[in-house]
């Protein structure tokens, strides 16, 4: 779609038409961005701040000259709306649109390219026109697995967010299948929301929110109440949830650089205990948060003496081993191996690290590497029966794998042999035909059979001698 047929050619008349027929969508109502709808969109939601939106656009000067167009490139454009990633006019315009809508935006310089313009295409202080089509939009994804999606209804009033361990005050409303099941004001510590009946997804979203922000969180079961559900809320297993959360206030926890080493070492046992309790209750993600806090405090510390150095080492080994165990439960085997490697860098004979790394490698079908880890466990602790059992499993798996490889390669070689036999048979056929043709100087009829010696056609020589008169 283009704007040519809709806009008068007189560049002085264009702003007047927008003023008479358009809508001022600026908060200041200074007519800085005037909007005219060309095609209505679908009824329903509009984008919210932070949503990923996909658009087609064409930008023109008042002269009608096109300076940019996604349609000409045949490639749509995506961005997070309301985050300052694009022109102010675009953020305002897209937030006012519905999916499928096409509109025109008349943009004054202060909402577009300003006094700088674009040296190659857009003069300084230019009024520009954009035709925008909103193709699609979705909430901001807070996790790589699409488990937590956020849509911001009201933007916060600062750039500071809560951190792990921060004390937060929120109002929340939880819904499942459209039914409200939880509505309350609650205070809790970030990373410990489970203690207040708050699902993991809400807890995890806190460090992305700002004071005063109101957002809607869509949670997959993994980040809601999981396979267990929540009987007190009448929530069954594996249910998706929607929470509307307002962050009313918060007090950030001390950052690592704000604490001295003794304070960190004194706090570590309490954090470890909390993580261990979460682990025992099966809340592995919450446990991971606690163990990560210890590592973030101490991984860059050296200590000023032998005793401090020893305590730092013990805390880091404990935290990484416990993280490895959590990730083993969650079947995130790369993370298990990474954390075990960190322990082995500190203590290369650590029995638990070698054993857990071996378990992760075995579950990743890295049988030889796993067996090597279990053998190292036996070198450290010859009486470790579990390691001996795992070595037997590795040996059995290696044998099965080798036998499978043999069968696979045998089938491959058989196919290659059959292919070679057919090729040689074909070459022999050509040689015989060539010899007969050269020796008897006769024409050889075309052989229609699928095989050169098919009984139905009596073979090549059968055809020849039948037709040849001596």
From TrEMBL:
<dbReference type="InterPro" id="IPR011990">
    <property type="entry name" value="TPR-like_helical_dom_sf"/>
</dbReference>
<dbReference type="GO" id="GO:0003755">
    <property type="term" value="F:peptidyl-prolyl cis-trans isomerase activity"/>
</dbReference>
<feature type="domain" description="PPIase FKBP-type">
    <location>
        <begin position="165"/>
        <end position="251"/>
    </location>
</feature>
<keyword id="KW-0413">Isomerase</keyword>
<keyword id="KW-0802">TPR repeat</keyword>
<feature type="domain" description="PPIase FKBP-type">
    <location>
        <begin position="50"/>
        <end position="138"/>
    </location>
</feature>
<protein>
    <recommendedName>
        <fullName>peptidylprolyl isomerase</fullName>
        <ecNumber>5.2.1.8</ecNumber>
    </recommendedName>
</protein>
<dbReference type="InterPro" id="IPR001179">
    <property type="entry name" value="PPIase_FKBP_dom"/>
</dbReference>
<feature type="repeat" description="TPR">
    <location>
        <begin position="351"/>
        <end position="384"/>
    </location>
</feature>
<keyword id="KW-0697">Rotamase</keyword>
<dbReference type="Pfam" id="PF00254">
    <property type="entry name" value="FKBP_C"/>
</dbReference>
<dbReference type="InterPro" id="IPR046357">
    <property type="entry name" value="PPIase_dom_sf"/>
</dbReference>
<keyword id="KW-0143">Chaperone</keyword>
<dbReference type="InterPro" id="IPR050754">
    <property type="entry name" value="FKBP4/5/8-like"/>
</dbReference>
<dbReference type="InterPro" id="IPR019734">
    <property type="entry name" value="TPR_rpt"/>
</dbReference>
<keyword id="KW-0677">Repeat</keyword>
